[in-house]
Amino acid sequence: MPPLPAFDPFTDCPPPGRFPLTWDEVETELVKAERFSDSVTRHGLIQELRHHFALVEIAAATVGRLWLAGSFASGKLDPEDIDVTYLIPSEAYVRATEDPEVVDDLDNLGTKDWCVRHGMRVDAYVLRLPETTDFHALGLTGAMAPGDHKVFEGLGVWDEIWQRCRSGQSGIPYGVRRRGYVEVLL
Asked: Whole-prediction pTM value?
């Protein structure tokens, strides 16, 4: 079985869910696959994403993982950009947001117009991962780190957004179909 399941024939996207892939598997499945052999944008997009990732990693000091969604994580032959969410470990995120210059850098890297002006067709979002790591105790009062409730909510919002199909896309009525997306393991 390939790392990424067959795309749903109606949505032309992976089935609902989050599918973990390595960088190499992303390139194999979403750039070099036979179905994309005639693409004129996918190879350049993955290179631009790798460059963008390196800039985010320099600014934040580390990236925990990425979520790739939108047309790049679909069967569209020539996507126009890559939608990516960077998940930054809590301690690194807090350190990064204490430095105004780093905050500016991350804001720029998360602004599509800035990215396009700098040769990257990347639509990026930067999120903090929760500080809480002992998930066995999450049901206990006080077990969650302060502020993690909002962090979990934000992650849930983006998970929900990346699994939705646009209404009207390929004749998909609002709320009828869901899609999957890719999590790049680092």
From this structure: 0.89
